[in-house]
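TA notes, week 10

Several of you asked for a full example with nothing omitted. So below is the full record: structure tokens for the whole chain, then the designed sequence directly under it. When grading your own attempts, check the secondary structure regions first.
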């Protein structure tokens, strides 16, 4: 036959080989399709970053003077509405050629605002009437959607004639040069999560290519008997594998396009992408289109490397080569070496080291699992007959079940690591909310402090006020450090510190900060300096782990009488208060009360809806990871099912012989249960240890302690055990049929 005829024959064998061939084709299509979809998403990462950087660049203000350009006063503030962050950008033109931010065709006049599409939707959908008073003007237009950094960002450009603290802006288009530690940590977790979902799929593709090997070998032996050469058999095998690869490529591309069309509705934390961002470059597309089929064919050929197909049958090497340990330890050792040093995640090098280390540690699972399984089963000498049958089978072929389980274990390890990190953030958020006791904090610039605080006091249910004015002290210390200074009445001091018996005129300070009679200079927001002499010996300052003391962390705390003659009018004020009405929108009422002072007041709620929403977003990502782990668990279960069915068909004469010699069918079924369960139980142990190790080493993403989510570990392990039970139960009919004595007949 010609090469073309060989390929056509391989195609016919792949789609016309009965129910078993169709099952393997569907399984290959699903696995390869999932791999292709994730690969296309990963291949779009460069475009996503490039487009995101371009939007961030275009919207960033340039402060270097440009001759002939009238600067734009630019002042960005934020507010929250029911847990959603809203960015308010206050703009004032100083001339006819003042720069215009991207997304609008003109600058808003005082009293006008331009809204981003999502903010416009939120304003239109708000029936409470609490959001519109927050806007510093009347909506007059929509910001171009593609000029907003994320599709769901809430942004408003507001015109003003009094932009306090405005920055002179001469153009838009400069490197923003910022990235918060939180964002760095989340991006690192997302990259690790992408690898966690991708790696087992590749392992699954390789495993799928090996399934049905016994039936394929019998077909190839028949073809050898008909006169086919070994070279033709390789072409036929390649054609069979290519059918699943091509259908997988089509399914993966279709899944990617469906996800791409709806990607604007997906947002992880504060990150989102536009559909056009998910556009893989053509070199990556070509590499995926050629690489996936090549991987599939290579895996199919590799499965036959220990098999000799002859016209009268198939000969397999019964003594597989001994697995060596040294190269399997390399990814683990290198991974620990990359993660263990305390590299800062603030640097690109530190992030890459952390991600690469975590990836290598999880790559150690599929490398180590076959070796571990081989060593474990080699040392087991005792057990019931069903257990011994399973051990003998695993000794003869421990690689195939280990490969099937390896992909699942990578997902388990990654899910345990990431869920432990994310669960720790939820727990720490809950602890912080409990410590801050649900108080609302208002920080006001000194120039409007009296008016803004008076407005806050009119909010229904506002009570239990704690007030501090903040300044800086130049204490003429040898280290030239500025000392944080606050002024508060005795009621506030006794509420936020451990002090008792406070009297107006007292001064509290950290050890060696100040002493009686020392002359210092106090500085306020206007950078005006005033001389002050410490009137009394400072009492020890011990701040309670909650409230204003913990938030402001003053080194010196003085009562009003101790600052006689000092003008505090320009000192910023921070007020902590509590709502007593139980109104869930209490913090929104507080924000509305100070809305006229937008840009000069910030309002935060430690136990408000935004904190709950951040915890909910952490939970959402944990749910996504858990769902992905269950999906891979399902794919591994299907792989085990097909593998078990193939083994039953391959061993039907051996099973018939066992039944004929008096071995009950239930013993044979239990042996299959052990045969599937031992690799999985060993893999669960390895995955749990690896996941906890990655979480322990990677906890510095958020600089917090380790929190192992044992409930997720238990659920995933229970689901894996349940899967083994279901797979074994599904093989019972096939075992009963194979255990009949007529299977011993031959011609």
């Amino acid at each position: 036959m010609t090469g073309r005829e060989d390929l056509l024959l391989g195609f016919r064998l792949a789609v016309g080989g009965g129910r078993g061939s169709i099952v393997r084709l569907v399984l290959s299509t699903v696995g390869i399709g999932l791999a292709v979809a994730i690969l296309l998403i990963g291949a779009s990462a460069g475009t996503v970053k490039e487009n995101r950087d371009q939007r961030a660049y275009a919207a960033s203000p340039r402060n270097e003077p440009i001759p002939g350009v009238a600067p734009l006063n630019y002042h960005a503030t934020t507010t929250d509405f029911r847990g959603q962050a809203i960015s308010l950008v206050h703009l004032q033109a100083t001339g006819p050629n003042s720069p215009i931010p991207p997304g609008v065709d003109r600058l808003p006049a005082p009293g006008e605002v331009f809204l981003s599409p999502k903010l416009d939707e939120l304003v239109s959908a708000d029936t409470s009437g609490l959001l519109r008073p927050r806007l510093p003007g009347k909506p007059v237009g929509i910001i171009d959607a593609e000029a907003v950094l994320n599709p769901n960002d809430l942004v408003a450009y507001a015109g003003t004639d009094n932009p306090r603290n405005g920055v002179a802006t001469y153009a838009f288009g400069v490197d923003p040069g910022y990235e918060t530690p939180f964002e760095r940590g989340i991006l690192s977790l997302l990259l690790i999560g992408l690898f966690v979902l991708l790696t087992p799929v590749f392992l699954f593709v390789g495993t799928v290519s090996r399934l049905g090997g016994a039936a394929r070998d019998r077909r190839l032996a028949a073809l050898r008997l008909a006169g086919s050469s070994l070279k033709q058999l390789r072409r036929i095998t390649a054609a069979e594998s290519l059918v699943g690869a091509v259908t997988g490529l089509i399914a993966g591309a279709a899944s990617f396009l469906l996800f791409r069309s709806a990607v604007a509705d997906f947002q992880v934390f504060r990150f989102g992408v536009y559909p056009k961002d998910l556009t893989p470059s053509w070199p990556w597309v070509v590499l995926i289109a050629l690489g996936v089929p090549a991987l599939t064919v290579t895996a199919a050929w590799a499965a036959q490397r220990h098999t000799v197909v002859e016209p009268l049958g198939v000969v397999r090497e019964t003594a597989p080569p001994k697995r060596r340990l040294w190269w399997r330890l390399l990814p683990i050792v290198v991974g620990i070496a990359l993660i263990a040093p305390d590299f800062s995640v603030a640097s690109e090098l530190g992030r890459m080291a952390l991600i690469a280390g975590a990836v290598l540690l999880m790559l150690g699972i599929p490398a180590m699992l076959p070796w571990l399984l081989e060593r474990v089963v080699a040392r087991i000498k005792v057990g019931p007959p069903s257990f011994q049958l399973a051990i003998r089978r695993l000794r003869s072929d421990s690689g195939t079940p280990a490969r099937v389980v390896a992909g699942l274990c990578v997902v388990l390890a990654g899910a345990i690591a990431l869920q432990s990190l994310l669960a720790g953030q939820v727990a720490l958020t809950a602890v912080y909310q409990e410590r801050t006791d649900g108080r609302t904090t208002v920080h006001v610039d000194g120039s409007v402090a009296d008016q803004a605080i008076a407005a806050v006091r009119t909010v229904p249910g506002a009570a239990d006020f704690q007030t501090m004015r903040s300044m800086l002290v130049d204490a003429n210390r040898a280290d030239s450090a500025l000392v944080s200074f606050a002024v508060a009445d005795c009621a506030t001091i006794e509420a936020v510190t451990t002090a008792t018996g406070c009297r107006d005129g007292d001064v509290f300070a950290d050890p060696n900060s100040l002493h009686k009679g020392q002359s210092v200079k106090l500085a306020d927001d206007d950078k005006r300096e005033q001389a002050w002499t410490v009137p009394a010996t400072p009492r020890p300052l011990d701040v309670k782990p909650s409230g204003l003391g913990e938030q402001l962390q003053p080194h010196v705390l003085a009562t009003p009488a101790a600052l006689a003659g000092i003008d505090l009018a320009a000192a910023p004020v921070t007020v902590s208060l509590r709502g007593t009405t139980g109104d869930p929108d209490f913090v929104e009422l507080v924000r509305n009360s100070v809305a006229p002072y937008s840009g000069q007041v910030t309002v935060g709620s430690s136990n408000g809806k935004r904190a709950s929403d951040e915890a909910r977003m952490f939970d959402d990502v944990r749910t996504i990871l858990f769902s992905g782990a269950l999906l891979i668990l399902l794919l591994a279960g299907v792989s085990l099912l097909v593998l078990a069915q193939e083994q039953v068909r391959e061993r039907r004469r051996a099973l018939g012989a066992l039944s004929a010699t008096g071995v009950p069918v239930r013993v044979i079924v239990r042996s299959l249960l052990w045969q599937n369960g031992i690799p999985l139980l060993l893999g669960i142990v390895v995955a749990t240890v690896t996941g906890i190790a990655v979480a322990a080493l990677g906890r510095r993403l958020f600089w917090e302690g380790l929190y192992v989510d044992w409930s997720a570990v238990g659920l995933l392990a229970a689901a894996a055990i349940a899967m083994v039970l279901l797979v074994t139960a599904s093989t019972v009919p096939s075992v009963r049929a194979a255990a009949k004595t007529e299977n011993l007949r031959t011609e």
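Residues 609-650 form the longest helix (42 residues). Use that as a sanity check on your answer.
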